[in-house]
Amino acid sequence: MDKKEILKLEYIALNIRRNILRLIRAGEAGHSGGALSSVEILTALYFNLIRVDPKNPTWVQRDRFVLSAGHKCLVLYATLAERGFFEKSVLDTYGALDSKIPGHPNMHKLPGVETNTGALGHGLSIAGGMALGLKINKAPAKVYVVMGDGELAEGSNWEAASAASMHKLDNLIVFVDRNKLQISGPTVDVMSYEPLDERWRSFGWGVRIIDGHNLEEIINTVNQAPFEKGKPSVIIADTIKSKGLSFAEGKVNFHYWKAKPDELEQAERDLDAIENELKEKTEKRNNNE
Amino acid sequence: MNELKDPRKTFGEAVIEAAKNNPNVVVLSADSSSGSGLGGFPSLFPDRHFEFGIMEQGVMGYASGLATTGKIPVFAAIAPFVTARPFEMFRNDLGYMNQNVKVVGRCAGLTYDQLGSTHHSIDDVAIIRTIPGVTIINPGDPVTIKKAVHAMIEHLGPCYMKIGAPPMPVLYPEDVDFKLGKGIVIKDGCNVALIGTGTVLSKAVEAAKLLEEAGISVRLIDIHTIKPLDKELILSAAREIGKIVVVEEHYIAGGLGSAIAELCSQEHPVKMKIIGIGDFYASNGPYEQLIGKYGFQPDQIKETVMQFLNQQ
C-alpha cells in the first residue's frame, strides 16, 4: 500500500480519537475502552474499504456495517462524523436528553447507523441476514461486523456463526476486536474462548489473526477476503483496550470511563503526542522524497 | 356442524399463495416449516426457503437482516419458541428496529395439549404486547387465518400471528370483511358483550347460542387483532352494554382481556369478566378435556356469563 495513504489514514485515526474525547467531554463518561481499541478497524473500513455515500446513507448498493458490540458506539459516532454523515457538533450532545447519539446506537436517530445494537450477541445474526438478503438480490455489497471478544460468550453468536457458514455467506466479514478485557477482568479468565481461531474454523469460517492497530495489515487482510472459497471470514484483531491514552491502556477499570478533569488533560496531551509523532513522520517522509 | 379445517395447513396454503403474488416473501425455518403447514414451500420456492435448524434466537436476527434488504421473512414455529425464548431478539431486532418480519407462533394456547407447560403458549400475547409497533393477530377460524396471512404480508412492519393445532370450525363466509385492527361483530345484542379471540372463538360462538336460548341477548365480537386494539368497537360495547366478558386461551394476566381492561378502566369503566387461565402452570391431557378443565367449553362459558350477569 502507498505509505502516503497510510499516513493519511493515521491522521484520520487520530481525529477519530479526538472525536471520542470530545464525546467523553460532552457526556462526562462512556465506554471508551472498547471504542479506542477499534479505532483503526473503523478508520480502515470507513476511509478505505466500505462503499458508502454519506450524502445518501440508505443507498441500496452500499456495503453494510454492523456494530455488534453496541457499547463501542463512541467509535461509530466519531467515525461517521469524521466521514461526513452528520455535523461534528452532534458529538457535543452525547449524554443530553433526546440526543441523536445515545449510549447504544439507534438507526432511527442517526444517518449511517444500520442497526440498533447494545444487547450483546445480536449483531452477527442480523449481519448474516443482511448478507443473505444481498446474495439473494445478487448485490455485490459486503457486510462488515465488529464484535467484542467478551461478547463471544453469548451463545447466540454461535447460532449465527453456524448459519453463516451453512448458507455460505462469503460476503460477510467479521472483526473480533480482541482487546482481551471485559468488565470483570481478562476475557479468557472470565469465560475463555480459546483457542479462538480454531473455534471459528470449526464453525466453518476462514480465519486470520492480525495486529488490529496496523492500518495497512487491516486493509490488506480485508482485501484477501473471502479467505476460503464460499466461507464467511473472521479477522481476529489483536488490540489494546483504551489505545492511545497512556494512563488507561490495557487497564480493566477503563472499560467505562468516568472522566476526571486531570485525566482529560492527560488524554489531550497523549493525543497531541501522537500528532507530533505523525508530524515528524510526515517531515521525514517529505525530506526523503 | 360447521366444516372443520386444519389451521396449520390453511396457514401454509395462504403463505404459498402470498409468495406466488409477492416475490419478496421468504420463509425461514427453525426445523419448523413442515410442522407449520409449510412442508410444500421448499419444493415450490427452493430459493426462498431457508433452513436454520433449531435456533430460534438466531433466526430472529437473520429475519431482521433479511428485512433490511427488502425481503418479507415469514418465520413460523412452535409458539413459545418464537416468543418467550427469543423475546429480546423479537423486541430489539424486530420491534426496536421496526423490521418487516412476520413471526407466526403455531400450536399456540393449550393446543399442544399433552406436551405440558414448556410447549403451551399462554403468555405470548402478554409479552409481545409490550413491544411497541408490533401487530398481534389471533384469528379464530380458517377463513380469517387465510385473510390474516395476506393482510399481514401487505402490512409494513413487524407482526406476530398465533394459530392453534386442532381442526377449527369454519365460522365465516369466504367474503367476510377482514381488516387488521378492526374487530368483527358476529351478532348484535344488548345484555352482555361477549368477546372472543383465536382458538376459543368458536367456543364463544357456541356459548352465545346457549345464552340466547336462555333469553340473554349477546353482542358477540371477534377481536382477531389484539394489537392495535379496535378501541372504537370495544368502547361502543362498553358504553352501550356496560358488561363485557372476554374469552381467551391465555393467561388472564396480560392478554386480550387485560388489554380491554386497560382501555376501559381509563376511558369508560365497566364490569368485566375474563375467562382465561389463572396464575399457575396448566395441566396436560386431551385438548377438549384440558380446556374444559379451565372453563372454555360452551356450556361452561354460558354458566360463567350467567353468574356474572346475576352478580350485577
Précis, in short:
The complex is a heterodimer of chains A (289) and B (312). Helices cover 44% and strands 13% of the residues of chain A. Chain A has helices at 3-27, 32-37, 39-49, 73-83, 123-136, 156-166, 187-191, 196-202, 215-223, 261-288, and strands at 29-30, 64-67, 143-148, 172-178, 181-182, 185-186, 206-211, 233-238, 257-258.
Notable characteristics:
heterodimer; A: 289 residues; alpha/beta; Rossmann fold; five-stranded parallel β-sheet; two-stranded antiparallel ribbon; 10 helices; globular; B: 312 residues; 2 domains; five-stranded mixed β-sheet; 12 helices; 14 strands; 38% helix
Tell me about this structure.
Chain A has 289 residues and is an alpha/beta fold. Chain A has a single domain, classed as Thiamin diphosphate (ThDP)-binding fold, Pyr/PP domains (Rossmann fold, 3-Layer(aba) Sandwich), CATH 3.40.50.970. Chain A contains 10 helices and 9 strands. In chain A, strand 7 (206-211), helix 9 (215-223) and strand 8 form a beta-alpha-beta unit. In chain A, helix 1 (3-27) crosses helix 3 (39-49), helix 3 runs parallel beside helix 4 (73-83) and helix 5 runs parallel beside helix 6 (156-166). The longest helix of chain A is centred in the last third of the chain and has 28 residues, at 261-288. Chain B is of the alpha/beta class. Chain B has 2 domains: 4-169, Rossmann fold (3-Layer(aba) Sandwich), CATH 3.40.50.970; 184-311, Rossmann fold. Chain B has a 7-stranded mixed beta sheet with strand order 3-2-4-5-7-6-12, sandwiched between helices. A 5-stranded mixed beta sheet of chain B has the order 9-11-10-13-14, with helices on both faces. In chain B, helix 1 packs parallel to helix 7 (142-154) and helix 9 packs across helix 10 (256-267). Chain B has 12 helices and 14 strands.
